[in-house]
Amino acid sequence: MSDCLFCAIVRGDIPADVVLRTDRVIAFRDITPQAPVHVLVIPVDHHPDVPSAALADPVLGAELLQAAAQVAVAEGVSDSGYRLVANTGSHGGQTVHHAHLHVLGGRGLTWPPG
Ligand code: 5GP
Ligand code: ZN
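^ thats the input. predicted complex w/ zinc ion below
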């Protein structure tokens, strides 16, 4: 989509600190990190949110989770633990409407969320 921020990152029109890339998935550091490790995992193809992506393409849903797990290992948080977040829709607090998983770690995270 031409007016989508993350599609622009996929095209390389907006720079990003990419930590993992396959032909279907890209992971890059969040511009406003909320934890020592804060990486976004997105599909190359535009889907409006993670559940929609998984419904449209179940293999892609699995690939997003696999990429998140690989990022956690590469970022050194898989043993200490981390959180995967898929903010979805207005009440979910989603601000960018291209599917993305947040990989958050490197410190103890509070629960419940606000
Ligand atoms: P959401 O609020 O939709 O769950 O998450 C969107 C995330 O995208 C936010 O954490 C925000 O900091 C991040 N973000 C917004 N614009 C950019 C950008 O231009 N580059 C990067 N790397 N992250 C961005
Ligand atoms: Zn997009």
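The pocket of guanosine-5'-monophosphate (ligand 1) is lined by residues 5, 14, 16, 28-32, 40, 87, 93-96 (CB under 6 Å).
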